[in-house]
Request: fold
Amino acid sequence: MANLDQVFSEGAAPALDPIVVFGEWFAAAEQSEPNDPNTMCLATVGADGMPSARMVLLKDYGPEGFTFYTNTASAKGGELSQNAKASLCFYWKSLRRQVRIQGAVTPVSAAEADAYFASRPRGSQLSAWASDQSKPLASRAALEQEVAEVEARYGDGAVPRPPHWSGYRVAAEQIEFWLSQRSRRHDRMLFTRTAGGWQTQRLYP
Reply:
């Protein structure tokens, strides 16, 4: 694995691809984090201008963007339909590293959503049908009843992807890498996408 700290070198940073750097940091997190290194905070803004944040799981990443899946009728889905921009934040405590990403959001293709849904555990597939995500729930028993009804509906057969369940991709316009340092003299390097590629800028901690 490449030197993870080279991103903070003014001489080396302009030649680096931040997606590749993210991949190296993510690989290191997979080796060190005890649980869910792909956890990220997703922040969105609805029509009322109020920001909203929650934890979701990164399922794929690459030059096209960073992908997660959800119920499109959920609060986050509604907010993204009104304002198709989002911010992501990864924090890997064991490494004392953070990555912040901002960009425009687009839905994944139906084929991508179908393929990922088919790879999910059956219990998660059933829950995707049973949960009216973000809506009021009368009781835990009511949710369990919904799951039982969905399970009975499909029996031992394949569970299709619900029409309200899909994925979103955040196309990075800015990516910031942060590394904790002594006396709060942290390292921060910001990559901003331009027509000619990525522009880099070191930031005060």
Remarks:
- Residues 108 and 167 are 5 Å apart (CA to CA).
- The radius of gyration is 19 Å.
- The first strand starts at residue 39 and ends at 45.
- The mean pLDDT is 96.
